[in-house]
Amino acid sequence: MRFAAEVSDLELADYQRAVRLLLRHPMITATFPDEKALPRVRRFAAELRRDLSEAFGYRLELHGATARLARTADRLDPDRPALSRTGRPFDRRRYAYLSLCLATLGRAGIQITLSELADAVAGDANRITGLGLDPDAGADRRAFVDAVAWLEERGVLRLADGSSTAWASDPGSGEALYDVARDAVFALFRPPRVLQHLESVTALLDRSLTSSGNAERRAAAQAARRTAVERPVVYFDDVSAEVGNHLRGQALPADLYRLTGLRLERRAEGVLLVDTAGWSAERFPGAGSVAQAAVLLAVAIAERVSDPDGRRARRMPMPDPADTQAALVALVDAGLPAGIPMIGDEVEPVEAAGDESGERRLPLLTDSFLREATADILRTYGSAFGATWHADPERLRREAVSLLVRFDAVTAVPGGVLARPLIGRYRGTTAQVKQRTLF
What residue ranges define each of the domains in the chain, with the CATH number in brackets? Predict the structure, then answer.
C-alpha cells in the first residue's frame, strides 16, 4: 500500500472521509463547513499531509483553528465560481470587493465593524478605475454584502455584536461588530508566487520542470490523480499522452480507492470517479427543475445521436482545449493593472493536451433542436415544472445546457452543443419526474 499505510482498517473509512472533506473544502475553519470538520482533519494530520503531497502534489497547512489545502492547478477552471448565499456566482465586482476585504482584514486587528470595513474597501475601490464602491448605491452595497457574507460563512469573520441585516438594507441604520480570525485570513490568500511578479495567470499553473525520467513519471501520475478527483469526467483526448497512460494504468483505481473510498469507472473514451459518498459540491443527476431538465435533455440528445431511423446528426470538430484555455487566460489577464512594471520570468503558454492522431469530430445538436426538446419536456412533464419555467422555457434550456457543459456531457459551440461520450450513458434511459401542482 502506497497510501494510508499507517491507517488501520478500522480507521480507514474515517480517514477517507477526511480526504474527501479536504478535496471538497480546501479551507476548513472551526465552524466551516461544520464544527466536526477540523477535528476530523487534525486526527489524521500527519498521514494526510504525507499522502496528499505524494498523491496529488498538494500541501496541507494547519495553523491555529484553520486547515488549508494548497492545491496545484493544471488548468484554469471556469466551473468553480464563488457563490453567494442565494447561489448566485460572483462577478468581477464581487471578486474585487472580496480581494479588497482580505487586504483590509490583513491590516486590521482582531475586531472590525462592518462600516469600518466598508469605508476601507470603498477607499481602495474608488482609486481603481472602473470599480468604485458607494454604500448608498444598491448594486454596490449588494455586491459588498455578498463578499462579506462569503467570508462570514467560512468563519473568517464572526459576528460579535449587532446585525449586518439592517446595515445591508440601509448603511445608516445599523452596525455590526466582527471578530477577525486572522489565521483564516492569512490561510485563505496564499498565492504560490508574489502577484506583483506575474505577467500572466498562467504563471500560477503547474509548470514544474523535472530533471529525470522518474520525476517526470511521478509528476504525470500526480496530474492523473488530480484530474480524476477534480473533474466530473476525464476524456483521454483532453489530456496529454503521459497523463492518459496513468489514467489507463492499473495502479490509479487502487490508489484513489485507498485514498477516497470511491471507485474509478473506466471506459474506452475516459474515466470518472463515481461519487457514492455524496462528497461532490454538485452532483449529476441532481435535484431541482434544472437538473431534471438537464437529464431529460441528455436522454433526448442521446436518442437523437443514436437514432438509426432518424436524420444523421452533423459532426463538427471538437474545439481545441488550448484555444479554450487561451480565451480564459485572456479574460483573467485583462484584469492585470496597466502601467505597472512586472518582474519575473517569461511566461510559457499553456500547452495543449489532446489527440495528435487526427481531428476529433462530435455530433452537433443545434440550438433549435434543444429548444424543441425543451418544449417537448415541458409538454410531457408539465406538472413537474413550475409556472416560472413554463413562462420562460428559454431560460430553462440555457441553465440545463449550462449544467451539462459543467459536467462535460456536452461542449458549447456557436449555434448549439457537441455531444460528448458521457451522453451515451443516458441512452435508453426512462425518466421518472416527481409531479407537483403547476399553479
Answer: 92-188 (1.10.10), 213-273 (no CATH), 289-335+358-426 (no CATH)
